[in-house]
Design brief:
about 10% strand, two-stranded antiparallel ribbon, alpha+beta
Length: about 200
Protein backbone atom coordinates (compact mmCIF):
# COMPACT_ATOMS: atom_id res chain seq x y z
CA UNK A 1 0.00 0.00 0.00
CA UNK A 2 1.32 3.43 -0.84
CA UNK A 3 2.56 5.41 2.13
CA UNK A 4 0.70 8.62 2.66
CA UNK A 5 -2.38 9.71 4.54
CA UNK A 6 -3.54 8.62 7.97
CA UNK A 7 -7.01 7.18 8.49
CA UNK A 8 -8.10 10.52 10.00
CA UNK A 9 -6.94 12.49 6.98
CA UNK A 10 -8.41 9.98 4.53
CA UNK A 11 -11.72 10.16 6.37
CA UNK A 12 -11.66 13.96 6.20
CA UNK A 13 -11.23 13.82 2.42
CA UNK A 14 -14.04 11.30 2.08
CA UNK A 15 -16.37 12.89 4.64
CA UNK A 16 -16.32 9.57 6.52
CA UNK A 17 -15.72 8.35 10.07
CA UNK A 18 -12.01 7.63 10.65
CA UNK A 19 -12.66 4.87 13.18
CA UNK A 20 -15.05 3.02 10.88
CA UNK A 21 -12.70 3.46 7.93
CA UNK A 22 -9.80 1.94 9.88
CA UNK A 23 -12.00 -0.92 11.12
CA UNK A 24 -13.17 -1.66 7.58
CA UNK A 25 -9.64 -1.75 6.26
CA UNK A 26 -8.30 -4.01 9.01
CA UNK A 27 -11.34 -6.30 9.04
CA UNK A 28 -11.70 -6.82 5.30
CA UNK A 29 -8.65 -5.59 3.41
CA UNK A 30 -5.52 -5.87 5.55
CA UNK A 31 -3.11 -8.64 4.47
CA UNK A 32 -3.26 -11.76 6.67
CA UNK A 33 -0.92 -11.55 9.63
CA UNK A 34 -0.59 -7.78 9.52
CA UNK A 35 -0.49 -5.97 12.84
CA UNK A 36 -3.81 -4.52 13.96
CA UNK A 37 -1.97 -1.79 15.86
CA UNK A 38 0.10 -0.56 12.91
CA UNK A 39 -1.01 2.93 11.77
CA UNK A 40 -2.76 3.04 8.41
CA UNK A 41 -1.15 4.89 5.53
CA UNK A 42 -3.61 5.44 2.70
CA UNK A 43 -2.84 6.46 -0.86
CA UNK A 44 -5.17 7.73 -3.55
CA UNK A 45 -6.19 4.26 -4.73
CA UNK A 46 -7.14 3.13 -1.24
CA UNK A 47 -9.30 6.23 -0.87
CA UNK A 48 -10.86 5.54 -4.26
CA UNK A 49 -11.83 2.08 -3.05
CA UNK A 50 -13.62 3.49 0.01
CA UNK A 51 -15.37 6.12 -2.12
CA UNK A 52 -16.54 3.52 -4.64
CA UNK A 53 -17.84 1.13 -1.99
CA UNK A 54 -19.67 4.01 -0.30
CA UNK A 55 -21.22 5.05 -3.63
CA UNK A 56 -22.28 1.46 -4.39
CA UNK A 57 -23.81 1.18 -0.91
CA UNK A 58 -25.73 4.44 -1.48
CA UNK A 59 -27.14 2.86 -4.65
CA UNK A 60 -28.36 -0.14 -2.62
CA UNK A 61 -25.59 -2.60 -3.50
CA UNK A 62 -24.14 -4.21 -0.38
CA UNK A 63 -20.95 -6.16 -1.02
CA UNK A 64 -19.76 -9.23 0.87
CA UNK A 65 -16.25 -9.16 2.38
CA UNK A 66 -15.02 -11.37 -0.50
CA UNK A 67 -16.51 -9.00 -3.09
CA UNK A 68 -14.96 -6.01 -1.31
CA UNK A 69 -11.55 -7.67 -1.49
CA UNK A 70 -12.02 -8.27 -5.22
CA UNK A 71 -13.03 -4.63 -5.81
CA UNK A 72 -10.07 -3.47 -3.71
CA UNK A 73 -7.61 -5.52 -5.78
CA UNK A 74 -9.11 -4.30 -9.05
CA UNK A 75 -8.90 -0.65 -7.97
CA UNK A 76 -5.49 -0.69 -6.33
CA UNK A 77 -3.35 -2.43 -8.94
CA UNK A 78 -1.33 -0.24 -11.27
CA UNK A 79 -3.38 1.11 -14.20
CA UNK A 80 -3.55 -1.17 -17.19
CA UNK A 81 -5.80 -1.42 -20.19
CA UNK A 82 -7.92 -4.08 -18.47
CA UNK A 83 -7.79 -5.42 -14.89
CA UNK A 84 -9.96 -8.30 -13.64
CA UNK A 85 -10.49 -10.04 -10.31
CA UNK A 86 -13.25 -12.63 -9.92
CA UNK A 87 -16.50 -11.13 -11.21
CA UNK A 88 -15.05 -7.62 -11.17
CA UNK A 89 -13.04 -5.81 -13.83
CA UNK A 90 -11.85 -2.28 -14.48
CA UNK A 91 -11.07 -0.58 -17.73
CA UNK A 92 -11.47 2.81 -19.45
CA UNK A 93 -12.86 4.61 -16.41
CA UNK A 94 -15.42 1.95 -15.61
CA UNK A 95 -15.90 -0.73 -12.94
CA UNK A 96 -17.85 -3.73 -14.19
CA UNK A 97 -19.39 -6.81 -12.58
CA UNK A 98 -20.33 -9.97 -14.42
CA UNK A 99 -22.50 -12.82 -13.14
CA UNK A 100 -26.24 -13.22 -12.53
CA UNK A 101 -26.79 -9.46 -12.17
CA UNK A 102 -24.16 -7.68 -14.27
CA UNK A 103 -23.74 -3.94 -14.06
CA UNK A 104 -21.22 -1.18 -14.69
CA UNK A 105 -20.20 1.80 -12.56
CA UNK A 106 -18.66 5.00 -13.92
CA UNK A 107 -15.35 5.55 -12.11
CA UNK A 108 -14.39 8.74 -13.91
CA UNK A 109 -16.67 11.12 -11.95
CA UNK A 110 -15.87 9.58 -8.56
CA UNK A 111 -12.16 9.55 -9.35
CA UNK A 112 -12.19 13.17 -10.58
CA UNK A 113 -13.97 14.50 -7.47
CA UNK A 114 -11.71 12.56 -5.12
CA UNK A 115 -8.56 13.60 -6.96
CA UNK A 116 -9.65 17.25 -6.65
CA UNK A 117 -9.99 16.97 -2.84
CA UNK A 118 -6.79 14.91 -2.59
CA UNK A 119 -4.79 17.59 -4.41
CA UNK A 120 -6.34 20.38 -2.34
CA UNK A 121 -5.06 18.73 0.80
CA UNK A 122 -1.68 17.63 -0.54
CA UNK A 123 -0.84 20.86 -2.37
CA UNK A 124 -2.42 23.83 -0.58
CA UNK A 125 0.28 26.31 -1.64
CA UNK A 126 -1.93 27.77 -4.36
CA UNK A 127 -4.55 28.60 -1.70
CA UNK A 128 -2.63 29.27 1.50
CA UNK A 129 0.35 31.46 2.35
CA UNK A 130 2.25 32.52 5.47
CA UNK A 131 3.84 35.95 5.62
CA UNK A 132 5.21 37.51 8.81
CA UNK A 133 3.76 40.85 7.67
CA UNK A 134 0.23 39.40 7.46
CA UNK A 135 -1.60 38.30 10.64
CA UNK A 136 1.72 37.69 12.42
CA UNK A 137 2.59 34.87 10.03
CA UNK A 138 -0.53 32.78 10.59
CA UNK A 139 -1.52 30.81 7.48
CA UNK A 140 -4.02 32.92 5.53
CA UNK A 141 -5.87 32.34 2.30
CA UNK A 142 -3.67 33.63 -0.49
CA UNK A 143 -4.43 37.20 -1.50
CA UNK A 144 -6.46 37.88 1.65
CA UNK A 145 -5.94 38.64 5.33
CA UNK A 146 -8.34 35.86 6.36
CA UNK A 147 -6.64 33.27 8.60
CA UNK A 148 -7.36 29.71 7.56
CA UNK A 149 -7.92 28.84 11.23
CA UNK A 150 -10.78 31.33 11.50
CA UNK A 151 -12.74 29.74 8.65
CA UNK A 152 -11.96 26.25 9.93
CA UNK A 153 -13.04 27.01 13.50
CA UNK A 154 -16.26 28.63 12.34
CA UNK A 155 -17.14 25.49 10.36
CA UNK A 156 -16.30 23.34 13.38
CA UNK A 157 -18.51 25.50 15.59
CA UNK A 158 -21.52 24.90 13.34
CA UNK A 159 -21.44 27.84 10.93
CA UNK A 160 -22.76 26.62 7.57
CA UNK A 161 -20.86 26.93 4.34
CA UNK A 162 -23.42 29.36 2.97
CA UNK A 163 -22.97 31.58 6.04
CA UNK A 164 -19.21 31.40 5.61
CA UNK A 165 -19.58 32.43 1.97
CA UNK A 166 -21.62 35.43 3.07
CA UNK A 167 -19.10 36.37 5.77
CA UNK A 168 -16.08 36.00 3.46
CA UNK A 169 -17.25 36.75 -0.10
CA UNK A 170 -13.64 37.03 -1.30
CA UNK A 171 -12.91 33.36 -0.57
CA UNK A 172 -12.92 31.16 -3.66
CA UNK A 173 -14.86 27.92 -4.03
CA UNK A 174 -11.55 26.04 -3.71
CA UNK A 175 -10.62 27.91 -0.54
CA UNK A 176 -13.95 26.98 1.05
CA UNK A 177 -13.53 23.35 -0.03
CA UNK A 178 -10.09 23.35 1.58
CA UNK A 179 -11.49 24.84 4.80
CA UNK A 180 -14.17 22.14 4.93
CA UNK A 181 -11.54 19.41 4.62
CA UNK A 182 -9.46 21.00 7.38
CA UNK A 183 -12.53 21.34 9.60
CA UNK A 184 -13.12 17.58 9.39
CA UNK A 185 -9.58 16.83 10.57
CA UNK A 186 -8.94 16.26 14.29
CA UNK A 187 -7.65 19.28 16.15
CA UNK A 188 -3.87 19.17 16.61
CA UNK A 189 -2.72 18.50 20.17
CA UNK A 190 -1.68 21.38 22.39
CA UNK A 191 -3.00 24.88 22.77
CA UNK A 192 -3.50 27.21 19.83
CA UNK A 193 -1.04 30.08 19.61
CA UNK A 194 -3.75 32.47 20.69
CA UNK A 195 -7.54 32.42 20.96
CA UNK A 196 -9.42 32.97 17.74
CA UNK A 197 -12.28 35.45 17.56
CA UNK A 198 -15.29 33.66 16.07
CA UNK A 199 -17.67 36.59 16.06
CA UNK A 200 -19.81 36.95 12.97
CA UNK A 201 -20.77 40.38 11.66
Amino acid sequence: MASGLTAATGAALLGADARLLAQEYRRVLAPPGSSSSAPLRLGFRELLYFQVVSSLSAEGLQLSPAQKREVFRVLTVKPQRQVAQGEWSRGRGELRKTGAVPFSFDLSGVSRDLRYRYRLHRRPDALVESDPAICSGQPVFRGTRIPVAVAVEQLRSGVSRSELEADFPHLSHQALDYAEIQARLPKPPGRPRRPLALQRG
